[in-house]
Design goal:
single chain, alpha/beta, 9-stranded mixed sheet, 3-stranded antiparallel sheet, 16 helices, 12 strands, about 40% helix
């Protein structure tokens, strides 16, 4: 893992002909014949033992692991990838890696409704026995991890850095909770910082660990769509939450549905596709709403769309004075039914 210019494919190719011990015993001439670069050969001749000692010390700590692709604890689904990580670093409950998982991904800047949807689906799928897998990113990822933890479920965070650091840094507390009640996973060794090219590699692990991938909100050029394409290439089920044609964050999901992803409105839609008919709590709704509104407030709420709705339109439709409409909108917003948007509009969020 610490040898430069050795990627997953080269690593796995070498393992087909050599054990690690045999490879290190080869001559420089044979290393060259194997196609290894000069910098790789130099590192094999003179490994950085100080760094490796640091790695071994980390592994010796409680609940820290490094498992190879030949280990019995290595997730079987991940082995199906064309380029599975030869080594996985894990913090937390390593047994979760082989349990049934659903990945939930989406926008880093979701709407309030998007975060609530991810949170509720994670809760519901946890009740059904699935481990919730995501990438610890801002937005939908974080809401998914939090939803699983809220109901005492299990969650796995796949990192794009070494496991001795947390990215983004603001999720340090969430990462700690995940390690204590779930697991964090990375193919990157200690000390690896966040780099743009690491996250597509991380995403293939998120989808590769899971039986299916749920995309909650995604713009047209979202990285979540890359993860969805990876999931399709890995022969995983892809699910998407539909949204308003006026919502930029719904365009990616709507595009996935046009391309064949399953439109999802409830947890049951996912369970049916995965043939999980024996799971518990399959009738859990996406969200529950106990109505405490009077008739006027409920009537106004019904007029507000899940896409931006202007106050002028609500005044015209209802025939009520703007002062009354504004007052009721404020009440509905404070109670969490609406969200104010730019241009004096409101969006219904539940």
């Amino acid at each position: 893992m610490r040898t430069p210019a050795i990627g997953c494919r080269t690593f796995l190719k070498l393992l087909k002909t050599h054990t690690p011990e045999q490879l290190f015993a080869e001559s420089a001439a044979n290393w060259t014949r194997l196609g290894l670069k000069s910098e790789t050969i130099a590192a094999l001749k003179n490994p950085d033992w100080a760094v490796i000692d640091t790695d071994l010390a980390w592994i010796d700590q409680p609940n820290n692991w490094a498992i190879t692709i030949e280990d019995a604890l290595y997730p079987p689904l991940l082995k199906e990838l064309s380029d599975p990580p030869p080594v996985l670093f894990v913090r937390g409950n390593i047994a979760l890696l082989t349990l049934p998982q659903i990945a939930i991904v989406g926008s880093r800047n979701p709407s309030t409704m998007g975060k609530e949807t991810a949170f509720e689906f994670a809760k519901s799928l946890s009740h059904c026995g699935f481990v919730i897998t995501s990438g610890l990113a801002l937005g939908i990822d974080a809401a998914s991890h939090q939803g699983a933890l809220k109901v005492g479920g299990f969650t796995i965070a796949v990192a794009g850095t070494g496991l001795d650091r947390v990215y983004p840094a603001r999720h340090k507390d969430l990462a700690t909770e995940i390690v204590n009640k779930g697991a964090m996973v990375s193919e990157f060794p200690l000390g690896t910082t966040a780099k743009a090219n690491h996250f597509p590699r991380r995403n293939r692990i998120i989808s590769g660990l899971s039986q299916g991938l749920l995309v909650v909100e995604a713009a047209k050029q979202s990285g979540s769509l890359i993860t969805a394409r990876m999931a399709l290439e890995q022969n995983r089920e892809v699910f998407a939450i539909p949204g308003s044609i006026h919502n930029p964050l719904a365009r990616g999901c709507n595009a996935l549905i046009r391309e064949g992803a399953k439109l999802v409105e409830t947890t049951q839609d996912i369970l049916e596709e995965l043939n999980q008919y024996n799971q518990q709590d399959t009738d859990l709704p996406i969200a529950t709403m106990q109505s405490i509104l009077d008739l006027g407030q409920q009537t106004l709420l019904n007029r507000v769309q899940f896409s931006p709705t202007s106050i002028d339109d609500l005044v015209t439709d209802s025939g009520e004075p703007v002062e009354i409409i504004s007052s009721m909108l404020l009440i509905l917003e404070l109670q969490g039914y609406l969200e104010a948007t730019a241009g004096g509009c409101y969006v219904r969020i539940k």
